[in-house]
């Protein structure tokens, strides 16, 4: 039976999307790097749209298609085309005592579920590496860190994704956001309540890699808001404070936790980053029910090359620390 699923995937999706059950995960990731073929071309097109100032109009148009009444039909087709595979890497999960049914229930009703701390060894390794990264956004971090790759393909997370989407998921992005103190910086769109989307169904996994408290740049989500996105939300993109208190009173969830805290969130829920007074590092793994054309080309070749250099330097610092 599994073989049948596999063949269907290979026929429809050209290549299987899951990592090998054994062998070098990092080597597998390197073969699937993001800067090849279509990705470079789409990164160029994306840049062109920005320079012609039509990126925003195209974005709104895409959202109107995405949230249209036909989306449930599209989700059904994706579920048929991408049946869940039964196999995944069997290594120990970094999410001990993970409760599948509780998490699924919370995600469906509240758009959000807080897991708690991941494996302490993995946290230590990730924190050690990111402590050497300057403030910036690093895309596709799983390509340059085997610890990020291990978490991105954790069996407990993939089990949840398969149940939540009802089809074989795909990892679209893994971004490390290293932000500096932001309290005196101008308010950007990420600081206002907004929603994102990717594929017909999508889920974010967030992991704090610094301690995050009320004075830090913490994450906020409006519970259950993934079911409330309307026409005007699509046109506006962000919500004013006034609208938030009128529409969603008592439903704002602030997320605090020590380094290693992991939480799940429906990508389409309203969320924001509150401007804090210190450096904060957060890993964001973005999964979807499939990979669409527009998920390619998020990073330019120059950004990827810069990321590689910075990570090489960070890894050298870690090696020096460990040997000294
Ligand atoms: Fe966002």
Automatic annotation (TrEMBL):
From which domain of life does this come?
A: Bacteria
Q: What is this protein called?
A: Phytanoyl-CoA dioxygenase
Q: Which organism is it from?
A: Simiduia agarivorans (strain DSM 21679 / JCM 13881 / BCRC 17597 / SA1)
């Amino acid at each position: 039976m599994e073989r049948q699923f596999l063949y269907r995937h290979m026929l429809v999706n050209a290549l299987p999307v899951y990592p090998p059950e054994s062998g070098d995960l990092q080597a597998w990731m390197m073969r699937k790097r993001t800067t090849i073929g279509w990705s470079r071309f789409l990164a160029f097109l994306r840049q062109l749209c920005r320079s012609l100032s039509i990126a925003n109009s195209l974005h709104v148009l895409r959202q109107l298609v995405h949230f249209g009444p036909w989306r449930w039909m599209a989700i059904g087709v994706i579920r048929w085309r991408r049946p869940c595979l039964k196999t995944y890497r069997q290594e120990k999960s970094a999410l001990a005592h993970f409760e599948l049914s509780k998490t699924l229930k919370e995600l469906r009703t509240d758009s959000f579920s807080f897991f708690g701390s991941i494996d302490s060894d993995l946290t230590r390794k990730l924190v050690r590496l990111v402590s050497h990264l300057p403030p910036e956004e690093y895309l596709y971090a799983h390509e340059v860190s085997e610890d990020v790759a291990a978490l991105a393909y954790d069996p407990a997370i993939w089990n949840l994704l398969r149940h939540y989407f009802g089809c074989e998921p795909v990892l679209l992005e893994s971004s490390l956001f290293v932000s500096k103190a932001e309290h005196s910086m101008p308010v950007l769109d990420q600081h206002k309540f907004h929603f994102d989307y990717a594929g017909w169904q999508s889920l974010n996994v967030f992991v704090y890699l610094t301690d995050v408290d009320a004075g830090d740049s913490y994450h906020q989500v409006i519970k259950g808001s993934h079911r409330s996105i309307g026409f005007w939300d699509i046109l506006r993109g962000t919500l004013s404070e006034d609208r938030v208190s009128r529409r969603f009173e008592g439903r704002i969830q602030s997320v605090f936790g020590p380094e290693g805290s992991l939480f799940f969130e429906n990508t389409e829920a309203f969320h924001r980053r509150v401007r804090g007074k210190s450096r904060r590092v957060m890993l964001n793994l973005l999964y979807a029910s499939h990979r669409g054309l527009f998920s390619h080309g998020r990073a330019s070749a120059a950004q990827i090359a810069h990321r590689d250099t910075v990570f090489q330097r960070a890894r050298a610092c870690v090696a020096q620390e460990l040997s000294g």
